Amino acid sequence: MRSRSKILFLPHYIIKPMKCLLFLLTLSCTSSLAQKYNTVFVEAESFKEKGGWSVDQQFMDVMGSSFLMAHGMGIPVKDANTTISFSQKGKFKVYVRTRNWNAQWSTVEAAGQFQLKVNNKILPKVFGKDNSEWAWSYGGEVDILEETNLITLHDLTGFNGRCDAIIFTNDPNFEPISDIQKLGDYRNDYFGYDRHPKDAGNFDFVVIGGGMAGTCAAISAARNGVKVALIQNRPVLGGNNSSEVRVHLGGRINLEPYPALGNLVNEIGPEEGGNAQPKAYYEDDKKLNAALNEPNISLFLNYHANKVEVENQTIKRIYAVNIETGEKVFFEAPLFADCTGDGTIGFLAGAEYMTGRESKAVFGEQTAPETADKMTMGASVQWFSEKSKEVVNFSEIKWAMPWNQEKAEEITKGDWEWETGMGLDMNLDFEQIRDYGMLAVYSNWTYLKNSPNTKNKFANESLKWVAYVAGKRESRRLTGDYVLIEQDLMENRVYSDGTASTSWTIDLHYPDPKNSKLFPGGAFKSIAKHIKIYPYPIPYRCLYSKNIKNLMMAGRDISVSHVALGTTRLMRTCGMMGEVLGMAASICKEEKTNPRGLYQNHFPKLEILMQKGVGDASLPAVQDYNLGGTLMELDK
Amino acid sequence: MKTVGLLIALTVGFSSLLVGENEGKFKVLMQNGGEFQVDEELDINGFLTAYRSNIMVPVCEKGVCYNVNIIFHWNIIGEFEKYETMDGFPLTKLDHVLFEPTDYKKLQNILRSQDLRFTGMTASELVKNEKLDGLSGATLEAIKSEVIEGALFTCHTLWQVANGAVVDSIHASTSQQLDNTLIQRIAALCSNKAYYFIINNLSSSQFRENLTTIAGMIKDGKGYFPKHAFEKIPKELFNDEAFQKFIINEYSNFSYYTQLAVLKKLTGAALSLSTQNMLLGQIDNLSNSQNIMLLNLLIASGEKEILLKLTKLVASKIVKLSPVQKQELSSKTTILNP
C-alpha cells in the first residue's frame, strides 16, 4: 500500500489569525504615529467564507493580487463573509480596490456591481462602477464599535463584479497606494511574508504548473524515484482539461517510436471527451488522486510561483504565493520544470523565449507569414446552456455589445472556436482578453433570450456554465537547444533524440473572417487551418532551456516555432512530454547532471525509460475521443 | 423530423432490402444487419484487377419510397475508387430534389475520403446534435461543410457501404489469392496502404521471392513504413548479400528509428565486409542507442580488419566504449592477434 503524498497548503482559517497577529506585531514595532491610528488591510481572496464568490488569480502578475469575483452568470452570487479585528474603535474610512471591467466596451452601465456590509449594515456606496482599471474606490465612512467585525461582500448583478482588497483606516492622512509595485511592497510589509517566506522542503525536482504536462511530469518523476514538489495555482489539477476550462484531451498516445509513452495520460485522463460539457466529464478527482497517491509528490495547490532567483544561469530558488492566504514559500532543488504554459518560470529566470509569429525568414517555414508579428492563437471562453422545464429569464443587459440578428449565434454551446485575444499580449492583456470573451457570451445570450426574433426558441434554455478561467493556446515559447519547425514535421526529419510523438495536425487558428467583419477589430470566434503530419517524435533538445542550465519544460511553452506549436500544443502530447520530463529528472538525479548533460552523455538511459513507460500499461485504452487525423490513416 | 424519417428508413432498409444485383464472389454483412454481394473483376488472363458491387438502397420520406441503384468499384486492396448511377435511378436529396452535377462530384470525394468527421459518428449521433428546432448544434455545424446539404444520411450511409466491412472482406479475398503477380500489381499502386497490405500478408517464401520489390517499397514508403517493413522481413533474409547492398546504399537515408530496426535485424546475421565498413562509418560521438548497437554489433561480428579500425577509433578518442565493450573488444583483438 502506497502512502499518500502530502497536500500542502495552509487553510485560510489558520492564515487569517496569523495575518492579524502579524499585523498587531507590526503595529507594536512601528512608530508612535502608527500606534495612534489603525489601518486594516483585508485581502478579499482571504475571506473566511467565500459564499458564491470565486478566487481569480489569472492576472495577479499584472494587477498585483488574486481577487474575489462574483461569477454568477447573471444571478447575484451568495455573500462572502469574514471577520476582522480592529485595535481601535470609532469612524473609519473605507477603500475598496476594484474596477469596472466592462467600461472599456460600454459606458452605459457597469456589469459587475457590489456593495460592502460591515456588521450586516450595508454601505450606500455601490462598487464596481468607478474605474475602468484596478484602483481604490472610496466607500465612505463606517462606525467601528467592536473589536471583532463582520465584513460582507454583497453582489448585486452576478456579472463578475470583482474585489481585490479593502482598507479601513482612521488615519486622516492615509492615502491608498495606486502604484502596483509599491502596493505590493505595502502588502508584503503589512503581512510580513516577504521577510519570512517558508521553506517548502527538500526536493529533487520542482514542477511548476499542474496541467496535463506538469501533472504527468510530477507523477513520472515520482514513480522513477524522484522527490517532487508540484505547484499549481488553481485548486484543481488538469489545467485546460480541468472542469474550470473544460477542453477535452486531444492528440494520440502510444505511438512509435516509444509506444509506452502515453500510458500515464491514459491512466489519469478523462474517459469521456467533449468541450464545454458538464463538470463531471473532466474527472478532476482522477488527476488529483493520481498525484496524491504518489508518496514522492508534495502537492502545492493554490500556489502561484512568481519570483525566481538565478545564479550562474542556474535557478537556485523559486518563490510562490498562496492565492488565497497570501502566504509565501520558497523551493530549492537542483532541477525545475516550467509547465506553466506561459513560460513564467523561464521568463522570470531570464531564459530565452519566443512569442508571436516568426517570419518566413527566421526558420524558412512555408506557413509562416512574410513579416513577423505579435499574433498568437487566442484563448477560449467556453459556455453552454441546458433546457429547463420552465421558462427561464435572462435580464436584458444594457452594457452588452450592440447586437442584431446577423450577429446572433443561435446555439446552446460555445466550443473551442469562441476564442479571443489574437494579437493581444496573452500575459499583459489577459484580463481584457478573458473579459471580452465573457462579454461576447453575455451579449449573444441576452439577445437570444430577449429579442423577439429568438426568445421563443430559447425560452427554456438556461445558461448553465460560462468559463471564467480562459483556456490559453499560446503565449511564450522557451528556447531550447533545438527549435522544432514546420519542415521537421512535413519532411519527417527525425532526430536521434526523439521523445514523445506529436500527432495532431499543424492546427493554427485565425480570427473567423465572418465574425471579424461583424466585429471589426474584436472578433471572438476563430477558424482553424489544418496540415496533416505523420506522428513525429519531439526532440529532447526542445524540452530544456538553452541558457538556464537546470530548467526543463513540457506543454505549450516548449521550444517550437509558432507553426510547429500548432501540433505540439495538444494536451495528450503535452502529457507525454511530461512523462519524458519525469524520466529525464530521474536520470539527472542519478547521474548528477543537468538536462543538457543528459542529452550529451546519458541519452540511451532515457531511451530505455521511454521504452518502458511510466503509466499503468494494463489499463484499457478508453480515450477514443479527439484523436485527430494523421497521414497514417492513408497507410492502414 | 424529415431527416429522422429518412434515417429510420435507411436503417430498416438495409436489413431487408439492400441486395446485390447478381450472385457475387462474396457477401458483405453490414453492422446493421444488411448485406450485399461483391464481384471480382478479372482481366483477359483471368487475373484479379478490381471489385464491384451493384447496390440498391431504399430511401423513404413521408411514406414514399424509391430505390437508389448504384454501382460501387473498389481496387484490389479495398480502396473505394468510384461509383456509377444506373439509368432511371438518379440520386436525390431530402425533398426529392435531384442531385446537381456538383453534388455527384462531391459524393465521389466524400466516398474516397478517410478523414471526414461525420463518418466516425453513428447515424443517431448525427440527429442527436440537433439541439433546438431548426437549429444546428456545434458538432453538426462542424460537419456541415463535409456533406451534401440535404443528403446527410445518404452520404453517411453510402460512405459506410463503401468503406465499412467491405474493406476487410476484400482484404481477405485478395490475401487468399496473393501470388507474385498480384503482389507486383499491389506494389504498383505506390501507396503506403498498398505497401502495408503486402508486408502484412506475405509468407516467408514470398518475402524472399519479392525482396527487390520490397526494397523499392522501403525506399518509397512514408512515415514509419520503412521501419515496419524491416521489422516484418524474416531475419534470415538479412544474410542475403544483395539485400545487405541495398542496406549499405540506403542506410543513411533511413530515419533514426528505421536504422535501429535494421541494426536489430542485422544482429547475428553474417555481415559482409562492406556492410561492416558501412556500419563502422555510422558511428558518431552522440550519446544514443544506435551507437551502442553499432558497437555491440561490430564487436560481436566484426572481422579482424574492422576490429582493428575500431580499436584505432577508440585510441584516438573518436569513439567511446563502455567498460563491458572495452573488455569484449580487447579480448576479441587479443584472440585475433595472439
Can you describe this structure?
The complex is a heterodimer of chains A (636) and B (338). Chain A has 636 residues and is α+β, with helices and mostly antiparallel strands. Chain A has 3 domains: 6-196, Jelly Rolls, CATH 2.60.120; 199-370 and 536-634, 3-Layer(bba) Sandwich (FAD/NAD(P)-binding domain), CATH 3.50.50.60; 379-471, no CATH class. Chain A is built from 16 helices and 32 strands. In chain A, the strands form 9 sheets. Chain A has a 6-stranded parallel beta sheet. In chain A, strands 2, 3, 4, 6, 9 and 11 form a 6-stranded antiparallel beta sheet that branches. In chain A, strands 5-10-7-8 form a 4-stranded antiparallel beta sheet, with no helix packed on it. In chain A, α14 (571-591) crosses α16. Chain A is globular. Chain B folds into 2 domains: 2-168, no CATH class; 191-336, no CATH class. Helix content of chain B is 52%, strand content 13%. Chain B has 17 helices and 5 strands. In chain B, β3 and β4 form a beta hairpin. In chain B, α10 packs antiparallel against α11. The model of chain B is unreliable at 1-24 and 129-139 (pLDDT under 50). Chain A binds chain B through residues 256-257, 410-415, 417, 457-458, 461, 492, 494-498, 532, 534-535, 537, 599-604, 607, 629, 631-636, and chain B through 114-115, 131-138, 141, 191-193, 195-196, 222-225, 227, 255-257, 260, 286-290, 292.
